[in-house]
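thread: overnight batch results

M.L. [08:02]
morning all. the overnight job finished for the chain we discussed friday. pasting input first so we're all looking at the same thing
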Amino acid sequence: METTKNEMPPYARAFFNKLSNYLDNKFYFFGSIQRSDYFPKSSDIDTDLFTDNESSTILKLQNFLGVKKYEFRRFVYKLHKTNKLVRGHKVKYLDPDNHFTAEISIYNEKDKEDVLIEHNSKMVLPFYISCLLIILKTLYYNVGIIPNDMYIYFKKKIMNNMVEGEDIEFVGIDIIEDQHFKKKYSYLKL
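M.L. [08:03]
and the structure it wrote out:
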């Protein structure tokens, strides 16, 4: 998973090489970049990053990507293959000049094996699933006749119900920046 099945655009490859060197860590690629339903310049590139110090890695990513801390979404993910709950952080990086989007998930090193088992299980899909995804993405990306919310709905139905046989249990824990709430409850220690 350190390499990709599909050819990554040169600017994306350069971005990940530079970021990997900066973090002194490897990226693991999963999702459509590893399958036949990858659409260059349209599909985002999904990556996993494993670390012993999540806080330090997030600070380094903030600096490199030029994003705020609140742009990192916390989540809890129930893995189907190992039936384990893992937590992590996720950030989306957009490069509008190159039509390049990356979604970076940060996990603790102790969860690496379980997360990789889960993501590796979706690298080779049945032929009919791949066909459905390609048709859906063609209608969304190339033809433009499917609205975003409908695209997301059908993609989740295909990937969750048809591949996994059930809904993926992935819960985002977004922290809202609210100055009034901070002032009112700043005395609370959790």
